[in-house]
Amino acid sequence: ATPMSIMVGVGRGAELGVLVKNAEALERLEKVDTLVVDKTGTLTEGRPSVVAVEAIGKIGEDGLLRLVAAVEQASEHPLAEAILREADRRSIDIPQASDFTSPTGKGVQATVEGREVVIGNALMLAERGIEVAELSDRADAFRDDGATAVLVAIDGAPAGVVAVADRVRPTTPEALASLRADGVTVVMLTGDNRRTAMAVARRLGIEMVEADVLPDQKKDVVEKLRDEGRIVAMAGDGVNDAPALAAADVGIAMGGGTDVAIESAGVTLLNSDLTSITRARTLSAKTMANIR
Ligand code: ADP
Ligand code: MG
Question: How many A from CA of 4 to the centre of ligand 2?
Fold first, then answer.
């Protein structure tokens, strides 16, 4: 490989909004046949908002949201931001929480006004011996709309559901269409619930979905696909995505994503626009043709 052509390629990439960190990434892009893509913050904007609050019993919507917001104050997850914005919108006074814990990829828990508040996915509640059937039934309607259902329990009893929805990035459908036209298989990878993931995938025409994936398992999915002989690119934005980005043949970080993701990837999409992947692949093919 002549360094000159690579340098020209890297320069052209920058003009296209694609920051190429290493030459191998540029070389491999054209050969990629499978794109694994994180859902939240990559296919979607990653700035979700609360679309519904359902409270069980007499606590009421605002009463439930008050306790949930108290716990989420200590979390930096986008779901927490959405919940705090909604509490603010409703002018709810948020009490203090103590004994906060947050098992990654599952949820958050704390004590608020002497009550034990557990918030998160079904696993988060089930692991604490909380009955999730009733909450899951209520959650399914939201999940089928593509929203993330945050389950809430107070003192060990089911207390409600907060539905949070994130918009698909406007450039995502076009990006997927051109990748598909190029023969690239797209796999959605998410820590979110299978039902939510399937609803979003259906809307986007994505056929392969890996859902309910814990943060430390995202990398395993990439490795499994590589073991099948595929040339795998992984696109993601989060801290959770970093090991998977590093494990892929080409790691692609969203420019608006976390620093850890950007550091773990060979390529960064400066404008967080997935259509740049196709442009970068064309550039990769041209660069390699110049070298051969
Ligand atoms: P993603 O891959 O979609 O970015 P994460 O791995 O960060 O998801 O989280 C997986 C799931 O864990 C979320 O869909 C949510 O149900 C739950 N969860 C994680 N953090 C929180 C939080 N702060 N509040 C409520 N639920 C949470
Ligand atoms: Mg993400």
Answer: 35
Same domain as 246, residue 206: yes
Furthest C-alpha separation in the chain: 72
Q: Which region, left, alpha or beta, applies to residue 99 given φ > 0 means left and ψ of -120 to 50 means alpha? A: left
Structure letter (DSSP) for residue 59:
G
Query: Where in the sequence numbering do the catalytic residues fall?
Result: 38
Ligand nearest to C-alpha 44: 2
Q: Buried (b) or exposed (e) across 227-257, using 16+ Cβ within 10 A?
A: eeebbbbbbbbbbbbbbbbbbbbbbbbbbbb
Best residue among 38, 84, 150, 216 to mutate for probing ligand 1's pocket (most ligand atoms within 8 Å of CB) is: 150
pLDDT at 247: 97
32 and 132 in a common domain = no
What single letter denotes the amino acid at residue 53? V
Q: How confident is the model at residue 13 (pLDDT cuts 50, 70, 90)?
A: confident
pTM for the model stands at 0.91
Which range of residues forms the domain containing residue 285? 3-45+168-291
Distance 188 CA to ligand 1 centre (A): 16
Provide the Cα torsion 20, 21, 25, 29; round to 10°. -20
Does the beta carbon of 44 sit less than 6 angstroms from any atom of ligand 1? no
**What is the structure's pLDDT at 11?**
86
Which residue of 64, 67, 84, 106 sits with most ligand 1 atoms within 8 Å of its CB, as the best mutation to test the pocket?
106
Instruction: State which of 144, 165, 186 marks the end of a domain.
Output: 165
**Is the domain of 141 the same as that of 191?**
no
In a shared domain, residues 213 and 121: no
pLDDT greater than 70 at residue 2: no
